[in-house]
Amino acid sequence: MDAPLEKIADPTLAEMGKNLKEAMKMLEDSQRRTEEENGKKLLSGDIPGPLQGRIQNIGEQGHIALLGHSLGAYISTLDKEKLRKLTTRILSDTTLWLCRIFRYENGCAYFHEEEREGLAKICRLAIHSRYEDFVVDGFNVLYNKTPVIYLSAAARPGLGQYLCNQLGLPFPCLCRVPCNTMFGSQHQMDVAFLEKLIKDDIERGKLPLLLVANAGTAAVGHTDKIGRLKELCEQYGIWLHVKGVNLATLALGYVSSSVLAATKCDSMTLTPGPWLGLPAVPAVTLYKHDDPALTLVAGLTSNKPTDKLRALPLWLSLQYLGLDGIVERIKHACQLSQRLQESLKKVNHIKILVEDELSSPVVVFRFFQELPGSDPGLNAIPTPNMAPSAVSQERHSCDALNRWLGEQLKQLVPASGLTVVDLEVEGTCVRFSPLTTAAVLGTRGEDVDQLAACIQSKLPVLTCTLQLREEFKQEVTATAGLLYVDDPNWPGIGVVRYEHANDDKSSLKSDPEGEKIHAGLLKKLNELESDLTFKMGPEYKSMKSCIYIGMASDDIDVSELVETIAVTAREIEENSRLLENMTEVVRKGIQEAQVQLQKANEERLLEEGVLRQIPVVGSVLNWFSPVQASQKGRTFNLTAGSLESTEHTYVYKVQGSGVTPPQTPSGARTKQRLPGQKPFKRSLRGSDAVSETSSVSHIEDLEKMEHLSGGQDASEANSPERHPEAPTPPEAEQTGALQDRAQRLEDDRPQVEEPESLR
């Protein structure tokens, strides 16, 4: 494999190797060039135009794989004889190399773009092998003896439906084999139950056709007992196909016995593209069969040279990497998994779901909190005597927190390639599979260390939030006007909704008035500049607005938080209602003023008489006998909500005092905080961690202020009533003078005046 391409005997291959070497030299030269303006490297993968800078740097091995597609189009223009020889050589070399690397002796290879396509062709081959008259009689043979395809319950979702659609089989031809429930991994196929299913199908007159085993399940990377499954398949004449990411470890020196047993199966599907970081490289299905006619009918082989050129990108990449490069990449991915496992073992509240701690290339972990009344050795697995509601609530809470943890880790360490998976038994977990991501993302050991440090830093937030959830629910339930919304997908402290006076509790439609109140409440809460994050969104069961409270990084005073939410929402509702009432009062006042002014005009006409209304006669009459009429207008007192005459204003040249508005009571409990203390933090009073030089002095100052304010209130309450004739002290005289001055300023306050001509 590592031999120079010039030594190949075929002149066409030698010429292609020479051109390939020149192309590689051009790629290396383009990567060494630098920009004179900023001194940065030019990415040889950049494409001019809108895609420039948006394509990742795939490296030299990636360029080789991409070059294979262009080279294949160039080779397809050769004459038929040279093309046939060249494509046959490329296909045979690639098949031989893959079989040697992955320990699959005397196998054939089928290259395909879709990963599931190879399994579909294998199923077609198995049908032709077991049904000899299928070519002649077609589906009549299948009707008399229905084939059965066995899939694990942990298989990739949608795989069975894909096979039935490709083969034209009904869905009853699929048989779902459950995983272990008592012994062994809960993600491994139950071999004893499988044998029982096979016997039952044979008794019903069905034909067990094919079994799909997993060497690394799609979710957690567990491997079935392939050795035991192979014995069972040989006993009943069933075709055994193996797929999974753990097949990559066959290239290493040490391989677990369960994965090594896959070398004896009838077929296997490999995906070298993700394992080696090669873009646009086809997947490979290795199989063993002696009849070339059946493989041709099944579509596993082809006489078209262009179909054989699918192996060209992989042929070039394997020669470029060499055996050492392939083994090094797979070994590096497995070492990353082991490194993360060792780091997570030292972290509390993290459960690791691995099958084999020594060789598992996939690490699945989740955050957990031990439930009261459960065995700590079970890693927070609920016991049967626990209430189902409590188990379900705790499960949903942990699932939401693990989903938040996975998203945070993906943002903090993007090179880790983490994914969030939902498992049937364990719940939401975070998966680290470097075999499928490390070669593409360039994951290093430093990235794994950074990932472990980020997990450690997020644990206090997760633990604190989970502890405050129940307290927050109890406080909201006990507070009037607030409704606790149980949203299982929200990872924060909780969700709360304020129920205003006109709220229709039975309706699930949107509430405009409620949205207005919650929008104002969200603005007020964000202005407090606390460590909590607040968001507004619709309730997941209806369209009504709610306030979503985020994660808590420190000890939070939940009672103060809930009280602040309730009081602020109530004040916003009252202010909104007051504004609406004031608008209505002003409208009615204007209408009343118009009526009164019209009535005053009519009275003025009756008082002056008809002669004064005639233009010339009225002027002469007014000159001899002027009318002494007072100006009458109307003022509207917003505080009292009533109309008043302006006669007093024009006569005495001063406005009326009106009514002093009442002082708006504040429903919020004003809590005295230490300097620098943010809202909703618990008081440090009585804490052992208080500093003697700073915090204690602040607390003493607060106590003195409370004592002085309490003493002043008590002295005012206990002071005897002063006699009217008793002398007034100077302080009281000054206070009285200030009050008189304030009263005069209050009397001079301008009021809204309605002009006399208003209609």
UniProtKB/TrEMBL annotation:
Location of the PDXDC1/PDXD2 second domain: 360-466
GO molecular function, one term: pyridoxal phosphate binding
GO biological process, alphabetically ordered: carboxylic acid metabolic process
Coiled coil residues, start to end: 13-40
Region described as Disordered: spans on this chain: 656-759
InterPro entries: GrpII_AminoAcid_Decarb, PDXDC1-like_2nd, PDXDC1-like_3rd, PyrdxlP-dep_de-COase, PyrdxlP-dep_Trfase, PyrdxlP-dep_Trfase_major
Highest taxon, organism lineage: Eukaryota
Residue span, PDXDC1-like third domain: 472-577
This protein's UniProt keywords: Coiled coil, Decarboxylase, Lyase, Pyridoxal phosphate
Swiss-Prot/TrEMBL cofactor(s): pyridoxal 5'-phosphate
Compositionally biased tracts (Basic and acidic residues): 698-707, 741-759
Record-linked Pfam families: PDXDC1-like_cen, PDXDC1-like_cen2, Pyridoxal_deC
Polar residues biased stretches: 657-669
Keyword Hydrolase in annotation: no
PANTHER family in UniProt: PTHR42735, PYRIDOXAL-DEPENDENT DECARBOXYLASE DOMAIN-CONTAINING PROTEIN 1-RELATED
Family indicated by similarity: Belongs to the group II decarboxylase family.
Record protein name field: Pyridoxal-dependent decarboxylase domain-containing protein 1
Species annotation: Balaenoptera musculus (Blue whale)
Recorded name of the encoding gene: PDXDC1
